[in-house]
Structure formats: C-alpha cells, structure tokens
Amino acid sequence: MKITVFAQIQAHPGQTDALFNLLKQLVRDTHTEAGCFEYTLHHSLDNANHFWMYEVWQSQAALDAHMTSPHFNAFVTASEELVKQVDIHKTYAC
C-alpha cells in the first residue's frame, strides 16, 4: 500500500535560509531511494519560516528505510538547531 506523508517543518526565526538549503539537499538525496515515488519541498507564501514536504512512498517499509538512511539522519543532526517544530501526518489513498 502506498504511504503519503505531509510534513510541516517550521524554522526558528533567522534560520530559514540555512534550513532551506538543508531541505533542498535532503530532497536531492532522497530522490535516489528505492520506493520513493515523490518527495517535494514546498515553501509557504504566507510564512517564510514554514516548509511543507509532500512524500509518496511505495510502502511503509520504504518509508522506514528512508527514516534510517544515512542522509536522513545527517539531515536530522544538522537541522536540530534550525527547526522549531515538525508536524508529520501519514496517510494512504482510499
């Protein structure tokens, strides 16, 4: 079953550009993963500190592999001081 993820990522004030650069690298790295159908970064027009990630994965196993990948874990470590809040919503198509 395909898994869709909507992740809202909020940068700390003054950290938007640094987080944006890390997110763009994460997108480039993630597109090479098996089971990744879509991984798209969106930047809010209403609030410069808000980003959205839209992801479509072949399965929960593919998403799990992403969450343990070296590049994702490197992103988490590098962005710890930049990110104020993350809200993640996982869905599947009905």
TrEMBL record:
GO molecular function term, any single one: monooxygenase activity
Organism from which the protein derives: Shewanella decolorationis S12
Residue ranges annotated for the ABM domain, each copy included: 3-94
Top-level taxon in the UniProt lineage: Bacteria
Membrane-traversing stretches: none
Keywords annotated in UniProt: Monooxygenase, Oxidoreductase
Gene3D superfamilies reported for this sequence: 3.30.70.100
Protein name (Swiss-Prot/TrEMBL): Antibiotic biosynthesis monooxygenase
Taxonomic lineage: Bacteria, Pseudomonadati, Pseudomonadota, Gammaproteobacteria, Alteromonadales
InterPro entries assigned to the protein according to its UniProt record, in alphabetical order: ABM_dom, AI-2_Isomerase_LsrG, Dimeric_a/b-barrel
